[in-house]
């Protein structure tokens, strides 16, 4: 008899959150089906004739709510038939932003199985780690993953022949056509609301990303709670421009929030202003989530003036610190509201509220979205700091995990004995409860919202025959917030080989490093600065 859920939540706490009415008995598949029923009924009542208005669309497809559910059923049939996916299995999903992405994850939930949310930029190193650690024996990706993606999958086929890679032709007008012809649907897999729903990825401080176990009950609560502090509703149009599988895009209030309220979902293939401005205009987009660099590129794009973006109502900006300067430009220049979002895949999400004073909206990262979120700000000895003073942010609550997936040693460090998650963020709290992020204790690099752990990058650099030692740090960058800078010490007599940094970066890519983790800057040096105890002083390198 285990005494905790997959997310580390003690059963007594799970019962408490259920008694409070925060957690329900619904799984993601049940939520999805109930939502499709509601929205289809609504659109039957409100339209007299003609086709149902689209629920979700991308460059090649536009589908109604019912078609979306049908797509999910067929996706589940394909996964079951071709890869034998069953209840309790983990399935790595590495899809671009598209309608089929949503069908695939809903299809996985239909089987009672669990998506492992990889990002399109992940290379073979990360994917292999997910497959081994989750564990997962199936990966779903695009049929034509591009040159880099193809190399990644070729490498995986060689290194992990037991991993089955299933291609989905997301650009086809009907990716599930063949499946529809194949016949019967598999049964809906058994799953409970308190079961593991999926594995999300952490920003990570050491090594490859840790896997974050979220249950149906805790995650769906976080989506519903997000909706109570956001203005997303049935008539809204959500633009999905960050990678769909990121926690921010999924649930704050994100794709799942849109499914719950019946808002239209428009998938953008990338984040460039050239892509998103025409989409905002064409689909009368009202809401979008962005990391600060994407917001900046939008604010600074001369093309903004050429597009009618008057439909925009609210932009959610988070994932990394937004400067007050940029925050102040949003409403005057884009004509919409700004909500800052300070969240983490481990749980806690803070929002500025739409009716907060402007000063709060532009200079804080919001306050916890749930009255049941517990927040502590402590010094290095875990003692509470005086009000207003900066300290380490610890948190516990109805949708924050109490432990990572299968790493007891790391969990002992990342959580307090009474179950608070050590976020690694340094914050200060205003009397109003709003948090301001002032720094980070953990040493990962935040490259415009993409979190990069230095260690795996260093490990790859160290594989180069001319590299003696490598140390990777984040350096301030105006656009991205931070860039990665690698300091490398050459082996004796081989400095010459490292002069061509392009070749060294190509080497990183070949070794399967995620594209965003390949160092932006490479500096060849003779030695590293050291701290008092002889450790490399990353502080000085920065
Ligand atoms: C979101 O989630 P993750 O898991 O990729 O990264 C979490 C970390 C936080 O611990 C913090 O260091 C940083 O990203 N962060 C911010 C921030 N939002 C996240 N730092 C400063 N200001 C912000 N607004 O990034 C995430 C998950 C859900 C919603 C939004 C973002």
From TrEMBL:
Q: Which Gene3D superfamilies match?
A: 3.30.300.30, N-terminal domain of ligase-like (3.40.50.12780)
Which residues does the UniProt record annotate as the domain AMP-binding enzyme C-terminal? 457-535
The AMP-dependent synthetase/ligase domain covers which part of the protein?
51-405
Which keywords accompany this UniProt record? Ligase
Under Pfam families, the record lists:
AMP-binding, AMP-binding_C
Q: Which InterPro entries does the UniProt entry name for this protein?
A: AMP-bd_C (IPR025110), AMP-bd_C_sf (IPR045851), AMP-binding_CS (IPR020845), AMP-dep_synth/lig_dom (IPR000873), ANL_N_sf (IPR042099), ATP-dep_AMP-bd_enzyme (IPR050237)
Top-rank taxon, per record:
Bacteria
Q: Does the keyword Ligase apply?
A: yes
Position of the signal peptide:
none
| Gene Ontology MF, one | acid-thiol ligase activity
Family matches, as PANTHER family: LONG-CHAIN-FATTY-ACID--COA LIGASE, NONRIBOSOMAL PEPTIDE SYNTHASE PES1 (EUROFUNG)-RELATED
Q: What is this protein called?
A: AMP-binding protein
